[in-house]
Amino acid sequence: MKILTKWLRSYLPGLPEDDAKLAEDLTLRGIAVEGIYDLGAGNGSLFEMDITTNRVDAMNHYGIAREAAAIYGLALPALTLLCPRESRPPSPSPCALKLKTPVAVSQPEFYAE
Fold first, then answer.
1. Prediction pTM value
2. Strands across the sheet with 2-4, in order?
3. Per-residue model confidence as pLDDT tens digits over 55-89
4. Which of 2-6, 48-52, 56-60 has the highest mean predicted lDDT (pLDDT)?
5. E strands within 1-113?
6. 108 φψ region: left (φ > 0), alpha (ψ -120 to 50), beta (else)
7. Cα–Cα distance, 105 to 83 (Å, whole number)
8. How far, in Å, CA of 48 to CA of 92, rounded?
């Protein structure tokens, strides 16, 4: 997985370490950084990371920022998510179904409406 350190630093502007030290500290705590690629002045680095399947929480930039915040004792701001507005009126039920074939209920005690 590829992680941009510029994006990590946008979540943690007070991150005290350089990219090489950050990579080392993440690796020591189980988030393996296998490669560091310099992207030039002002662009940070690109981390090539090996994230195991039991760490799905770390499979994105925010998850890696959470790990870095825990390592260095920094506060991680919560994500602010904006949901799109509903463009159509809400349905009376969560999902509307139209049956083309009538369904016979053989055991009405198991039938819920």
1. 0.69
2. 2-4, 45-50, 32-38
3. 888 889 999 999 999 999 999 988 887 777 766 66
4. 2-6
5. 2-4, 32-38, 45-50
6. alpha
7. 39
8. 48
Tokens 């370490």 label which residue? 17
Q: Per-residue pLDDT tens for 20-48?
A: 999 999 999 989 999 999 998 889 899 99
Decide if pLDDT at 111 tops 60.
no
The three-state secondary structure class of 79 is: coil
Strand partners, 38: 45
Tokens (6 digits) for 32: 């393996």
CB neighbours (10 Å) of residue 11? 18
CB 51 within 8 A of CB 16: no
Beta bridge partners of 50: 32
Which residue, among 12, 4, 106, has the nearest Cα to 67 in the 3D structure?
A: 12
Token output for 57? 């929480």
Q: What is the DSSP letter of 109?
A: G
The closest alpha carbon to 63, from 76, 75, 73, 53, belongs to 76
Phi, psi angles (nearest 5°) of residue 33: -95, 115
